[in-house]
Write a structure and sequence with these properties.
The chain contains four helices and no strands. The chain is mainly alpha-helical. The longest helix is centred in the first third of the chain and has 13 residues. The N and C termini lie far apart (28 Å).
Length: 73
């Protein structure tokens, strides 16, 4: 999108994060969050909710709770 001169806003990035999480691709969701921050777009409560919901199925794995808490800082 940005290659075509379009600037993504918090809503567009949040939709991307949510879609990645729904597909179980937490790495891509996290990468999208980092890109979002680098572009100066501030995540909102909906963005973080999508990330937390995406991480919940993985919560039984060691260290996931710490990762969730790290994202929320």
């Amino acid at each position: 999108m940005q290659a075509h001169g379009l600037q993504l806003d918090v809503y567009a990035y949040t939709m991307q994060v949510d879609l990645w999480c729904r597909q179980g691709d937490i790495e891509s969701a996290s990468a999208t969050l980092e890109e979002m921050k680098l572009q100066g777009v501030h995540p909102n409560v909906v963005t973080y909710t999508a990330l937390v919901k995406g991480h919940l199925p993985l919560a039984s794995r060691a260290g996931i709770l710490a990762k969730i808490l790290g994202i929320l800082k």
